[in-house]
Write a structure and sequence with these properties.
5-stranded mixed β-sheet; 16% strand; Rossmann fold; 49% helix
């Protein structure tokens, strides 16, 4: 007999409620579990999204920071060069340089820095002519032309005109001619154009090579032999002392060759001295370097006075092209060294 018959209505309801309650508990537990899983998944995705957004934001910020840093570095691609007249902010890698003095053109060229403007005399140098064919001729007074060239660096000597106006066009650095020797001058230009290592390498190499050649020359012509340097310029004949281009730096400093006493005394003040053909013999050494301008009056060479000078009679006058011999930059010095090797040593 069914048990239910023994139960009253209340008992039945109670048992039914208990049974439904038990059944509901069975259904509720897995439902809660599923709900928890769903919420957990949503939470994870939300966390991932939030974290992803945060990471994306961080990456974006980092990227922007890097970009800003690169931009800042690019925009501030300059450094401070300590010039004679004080600190100057100059480009780290100059690409459009104007040189307003023939005495420094070759220094910049030797370091492979692009030139957009140079003086006329530099363009006439046979050693530079081809390389400067597309470079404009300018002076310290051709301001409009310099502006059109859009230079990022201007270099000149300390006595150039319009220096304040030039500084408004581009960073302008000037040097006093002869303040330092040719080796130190190249190092300074190397610092200026951010190529100090290259400049130092040339200085070390040339210093060693030229001194070695000097020893060979002295061994051949005698340690006490003297050398003079003469030149015709602007309808005048000159003799030159130390550190005045035309090979003097190599002959007297690098080679250690002697200079006639008369020349030493006469050139002590200015580095050069004007002489006449009549007294030229008093200034001529055992060997003579004649920096000859073909477009000058060189008729003195046809006089008996000149022909009777010992160096002339002994074929010890070596003629060089003055336009290629004026300067003391690395390119000119290399040319001069080869000239001396050929004429003194016959190599």
């Amino acid at each position: 007999m069914p048990i239910i018959s023994y139960c009253n209505e209340n008992d039945f309801h109670i048992q039914r409620e208990k049974g439904e309650s038990h059944h509901m508990r069975k259904l509720f537990v897995p439902f809660i579990f599923v709900l928890v899983l769903l919420l957990s998944a949503c939470g994870t995705n939300s966390t991932k999204d939030t974290t992803g957004d945060a990471n994306a934001s961080k990456e974006s910020t980092s990227s922007n920071t890097d970009s800003a840093g690169a931009s800042s570095e690019s925009e501030s691609g300059t450094f401070t060069y300590q010039s004679e007249s004080g600190p100057v902010e100059v480009p780290s890698h100059p690409q459009r340089v104007v040189v307003l003095t023939r005495f420094l053109t070759g220094n910049v060229m030797a370091l492979g820095v692009p030139l957009v403007g140079v003086d006329e005399m530099s363009k006439e140098n046979p050693n530079f002519k081809e390389k400067l064919a597309n470079t404009e001729a300018v002076t310290d007074e051709s301001l409009e032309k310099i502006i059109e060239l859009n230079p990022d660096l201007i270099i000149g000597l300390s006595d150039i005109k319009n220096v304040d106006k030039l500084k408004q066009i581009a960073p302008t650095v000037t040097y006093t001619y002869g303040k330092v020797d040719f080796l130190k001058q190249q190092l300074e230009i190397g610092k200026l154009v951010n190529k100090e290592k290259e400049a130092q390498a040339w200085v070390d190499d040339f210093d060693a090579r030229s001194k070695k050649v000097g020893e060979e020359i002295k061994a051949k012509i005698g340690a006490n032999a003297t050398v003079s340097v003469i030149e015709t310029f602007n309808k005048q004949l000159y003799v030159y002392g130390e550190k005045f281009g035309r090979g003097t730096e190599i002959l007297y400093d690098q080679f250690g060759l002697g200079m006639p006493d008369k020349v030493k005394e006469a050139t002590k003040k200015d580095g050069f001295f004007a002489v006449s053909n009549e007294v030229l013999k008093d200034y001529m050494g055992d060997y003579v370097i004649f920096s000859k301008n073909a477009d000058e009056d060189n008729s003195f060479q046809n006089t008996e006075t000149y022909k009777n000078i010992d160096a002339v009679k002994n074929n010890r006058v070596f003629e060089a092209d003055a336009k290629a011999f004026y300067f003391n930059d690395p390119l000119s010095m290399e040319y001069q060294l080869e000239f001396f090797i050929e004429h003194f040593l016959g190599k």
